[in-house]
Design goal:
Blueprint lengths: L1 E4 L9 E3 L2 H13 L4 E2 L19 E4 L5 E5 L2 H4 L11 H6 L3 H11 L30 E7 L9 E8 L10 E4 L4 E5 L2 E6 L9 E7 L12 E6 L5 E5 L4 E4 L5 E4 L3 E6 L7 E7 L5 E3 L5 E5 L10 E5 L26 H4 L19 E2 L4 E7 L11 E6 L8 E10 L2 E12 L14
Antiparallel strand pairs: 1-11, 2-7, 3-25, 4-5, 5-6, 6-7, 8-9, 9-10, 10-11, 12-13, 13-16, 14-15, 16-17, 18-19, 19-20, 20-21, 22-23, 23-24, 24-25
């Protein structure tokens, strides 16, 4: 465990307020910029304008109706996508720990090699383009509220501005509870607390360390923080991997695959719940506590995203090795384990026995996901899963609703419907009002 507590001292509370007169023109412009297509009976309203919500990565609607969201400028200069650094591929796959990654970055981006790395912005202004420029930008978390009850948010506070180490990823997941804010920002899963009640998180505890071993595809970091039906905190990371220890010293080495982890809210009783996922982004529990997600595909020709049922100890079969590396090596073979062994397909006669296969191949670009166990949204949508399809254009993106029914020890899809179209969402959550 790693913990720290800042001394109590005057701080800038980072509060933004907007008047109705300031909000009105921004709201009108936002409404006029989209023309969503909705399923019968559904209605879409604007709740917050972009001067309060800028580039959200993940959102959560809290019990009081306020919204917490994370944003980070690190994605543009301090957290890399391997597709922009193909010469790093083989060495990146070989990394096994966070310290390996740190040493790799400090070598490749050393001050002595500044002239080779002018693509990296000199954020600290010292005239050198090196790894130290990756320690300037951080991750931010805001709370936004509608204080006057008119249906539009008018208040925001930045509660977190932290996590600037050179190996830090963007904050891809968060969960607000009554006494803490849980933030997934590799290499750590953090529990933050506001000790003096001023709205600024001033105490932090690393519940788990070792996420984000590789430089891989952008957006494959930590995400999907959920409170499970067992009272434990669940979170995930994509195929940039995990190598760390539980609170009892147990080692968990999954550097080349995505995992779903869980622990008690204080970080105790840590374990890896499921493994072998590529990039689930978010996952949800149904009314019977089953863990369901939609995992992104590996971008191979003929492949498709997968609707997955994740059980304790399950291996979904994906490894980062199936993504890149040997396929551009003229001296290597062209055999693709993921494709040639059909690991991406639902159960079939010749299927590998060591994996839990997907339920079916499903929508492209899954990001946000929720399950609706109630009827506040209307009886038509009771016991439905909702998943966001993000494929880069409003014309092809949207939100899908689906239902499952038991089939043996697993499930099968019984219904699927696109309920929002001509819209480019990235996240989704239910509020206390059922919206």
């Amino acid at each position: 465990m790693l913990s720290s507590c800042k001394k109590s001292e005057p701080v800038d509370l980072q509060i933004i307020t907007l008047s109705p007169e300031q909000i009105a023109p921004q709201a009108e412009a936002a409404r006029n910029s989209i023309s969503p297509v909705l399923a019968e009976g559904l209605k879409m309203d604007l709740w917050a304008v972009d001067s309060l919500v800028k580039d959200p990565i993940t959102i959560q609607v809290y019990d009081d109706g306020s919204i917490y969201y994370a944003r980070s400028p690190r994605r543009t200069n301090s957290e890399f996508d391997i597709r922009g650094h193909q010469s790093w591929e083989i060495r990146s796959i070989g990394l096994q720990t966070i310290e390996d990654k740190r040493n790799f970055l400090r070598t490749e981006l050393s001050p002595e090699r500044s002239s080779e790395n002018t693509w990296l912005k000199d954020l600290n202004g010292d005239g050198s383009h090196d790894w130290r420029d990756m320690t300037i930008e951080g991750n931010e978390i805001f709370q936004i509220k509608d204080t006057d009850g008119d249906g539009l948010a008018d208040w925001a506070q930045r509660q977190v501005n932290d996590f600037t180490d050179e190996v830090v990823d963007v904050a891809g997941g968060l969960l607000k509870t009554e006494d803490a804010l849980y933030v997934a920002a590799g290499p750590d899963m953090w529990r933050l607390m506001d000790k003096n009640g001023d709205g600024i998180m001033d105490d932090k505890l690393s519940m788990s360390y070792g996420y984000g071993i590789h430089i891989g595809f952008g957006g494959h970091g930590m995400s999907g923080v959920e409170m499970g039906p067992d009272g434990r905190i669940y979170w995930g990371i994509g195929d940039i991997g995990f190598n760390g220890k539980g609170d009892d010293g147990t080692e968990y080495k999954y550097p080349n695959r995505g995992v779903i982890a869980r622990s008690n809210p204080d970080g105790s009783d840590f374990e890896i719940f499921a493994m072998g996922v590529r990039n689930t982004h978010e996952f949800v529990f149904d009314q019977f506590t089953n863990l369901i997600s939609v995992d992104n595909d590996g971008d191979h020709a003929g492949e498709k995203e997968r609707l997955v049922y994740l059980t304790r100890g399950s291996d979904s079969g994906w490894r980062i090795n199936w993504q890149f590396g040997k396929y551009r090596d003229p001296d290597n073979n062209t055999y693709k384990v993921w494709m040639d062994e059909k690991l991406f397909l639902p159960r079939w006669e010749g299927q590998a026995a060591y994996i839990t296969p997907p339920l079916m191949n499903y929508v492209s670009g899954p990001t946000g996901m929720v399950f609706n166990p109630g009827a506040r949204l209307g009886p038509r949508w009771k016991d439905h899963f909702f998943v966001v399809e993000f494929v880069g254009s409003a014309a092809s993106s949207g939100i899908h609703a689906f239902q499952l029914q038991p089939k043996g020890a697993s499930f099968e899809l019984t219904k699927t419907e696109k309920i929002v179209g001509s819209f480019l969402p990235t996240g989704i959550d239910f509020g206390p009002d059922g919206a």
